[in-house]
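This is your field. Have a critical look at both lines of this record:
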Amino acid sequence: MDQGPGRTAETRRRRRHSIRRSERCLRRARPKWQFPRHRTLHLVSYKDWNNGGIHKYEGGNLSRLIEDKYIRHLAIKPDEPSVLLATTNDQPFHDQTNAAGVYLSTDGGQTWNLENNGLPVLRGSFAIFNPHNPSELVFASDGRGFFRGGVGQSAYNGPHTIPGAIECEFYDNGGEGVAFNEVDTAKNGEATFRPADGVDVPNKANASNGKAVGWTNDGEWLE
């Protein structure tokens, strides 16, 4: 009868030891989340009254690119990462919306402009770049359907200094009919250089930039 309390104490001791051992195993198994310093990440903080907007993590530092707590979605142009597209939505249960529409930045988030022409509603679920034609935008409104638009024309790998030399393959962003006109549908030359465009750009060792524009047909042009 005297060994009852001893057995109870020993049971508690073994239980504590088992719990501590389990905690150590969990700590070893738990991943250590760390942002790689050599990568650039964009974070959206939706409806955060203190830190709302878009944040950029680069080189170990986090900075806010735009302050708008109603920004819900961010898209990055696949062939030109400095072009950013942000969609706002407050999902209101009232008649007045706090959404601002669609923001567009062509300089990596340093400056932003609202691109709302033709939109019947400012609330949106998302806006993305067409993967088959990155110069085309697709906006999914909140309740009024889908809309298409364009990024417009801008300098590729620019701005460029004038007077000065501009490589032919550095023609403007903007897509077919805006920055260039390509007659044939085949992409000849280097397939990985500006792959979304049909402009024929072969590798050329004696060219100043190692590339050239070739297979030119009547009616084709670049800007």
